[in-house]
Known about the structure:
Blueprint (H helix, E strand, L loop, with lengths): L2 H15 L33 H12 L2 E3 L5 E3 L2 H4 L2 H13 L4 H12 L7 H20 L2 H26 L6
Amino acid sequence: MDWKTLLLLLLYYNAQATGSHRWSRAKLFPAAHRPKRSPSMPLNPVLQTSLEEVELLYQFLLAELEISPDLEISIKDEELASWRKALNFHTICNDVIPKRIPDIRRLSASLSSYPGILKKEDFERTVLTLAYAAYRTALSQGYQKDIWAQSLISLFQALRHDLMRSSSPVSPS
């Protein structure tokens, strides 16, 4: 199965399965809750609020992404990049998700001890971090490739664990 298809299925499943949470937890992506310098940048941006937006995210990923030497992620397709939701995608990819190994390891550690099911936006950001780690793994060589691959595996295991929890029947209290 193609990794992009798997990514779409994960996003779609989570969009359908995630419920609301009644208690406050530590934020996995603190950058999403910090006020931005530009008023055009949304606070706590989210991409997938409907099935159509999940499909749009898939289109963004299929359109090919470009990662500059300073780790700035952009959509190569100019038409897609001009869409309003592309601004949220750009903000999440460049200002919210971790892109350095220590930050990704910190996220993986937080995810492994996270109580309950991830919020929709945290799941979405973790999947985008996973896609970024997959990209960096593919570009790396030698020892760096092993480090990125381990980060990729840790994120995948955290997402799989979350999906298993969200699909198990809720026990009556």
